[in-house]
């Protein structure tokens, strides 16, 4: 039996509640929480103005974090990665972290209708006005066009979480 930590990561449309769930799981499990939004905002303040900027800066961040996350997991600490795993390519990055060493993993698929996501985005615009220009319905529709739900053939340990209006 290994004493590795567990890699926990998420899939779900923009505004589905992945960040809220990731923070909750990290608290419950006493895990290290790493948020892509926090890292990008800290390292590149004011530089991410559209989706192409996000893609560019995110792709620069991931190689830096990959080995770091693996070392934390190998040391026995669970890591919750609040980074999107919304396409097969994005999920392959997570698989690259855990598969070579046989590190346990959990993929939470946060399922939510577009209406729920858009409502959450409107709330986030009010609570985090610095994100209001990015968290729009137009960006949601564009990003959702690339969304790929996880498939059994990808080989992930998937936990489905369904979100609805509350």
UniProtKB/TrEMBL annotation:
Protein name: Cell division protein ZipA
A Pfam family assignment: AAA_33
UniProt keyword Cell division, yes or no: yes
One example of a Gene Ontology biological process annotation: cell division
Protein keywords: Cell cycle, Cell division
Gene3D superfamilies: P-loop containing nucleotide triphosphate hydrolases
Organism: Vreelandella alkaliphila
InterPro entries per record: P-loop_NTPase (IPR027417)
């Amino acid at each position: 039996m290994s004493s590795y930590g567990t890699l926990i990561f998420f899939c779900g449309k923009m505004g589905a509640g992945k960040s809220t769930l990731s923070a909750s799981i990290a608290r419950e499990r006493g895990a290290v929480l790493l948020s892509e939004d926090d890292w990008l905002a800290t390292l590149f303040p004011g530089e991410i103005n559209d989706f192409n900027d996000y893609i560019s800066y995110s792709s620069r961040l991931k190689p830096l974090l990959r080995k770091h996350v693996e070392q934390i997991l190998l040391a026995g600490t669970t890591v919750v990665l609040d980074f999107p795993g919304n396409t097969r390519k994005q999920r392959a990055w997570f698989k690259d972290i855990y598969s070579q060493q046989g590190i346990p993993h959990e993929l939470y698929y946060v399922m939510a209708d577009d209406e729920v996501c858009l409502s959450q985005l409107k709330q986030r615009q009010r609570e985090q006005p610095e994100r209001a220009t990015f968290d729009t319905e137009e960006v949601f529709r564009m990003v959702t066009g690339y969304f790929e739900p996880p498939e059994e053939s990808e080989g992930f340990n998937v936990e489905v979480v369904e979100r609805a209006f509350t």
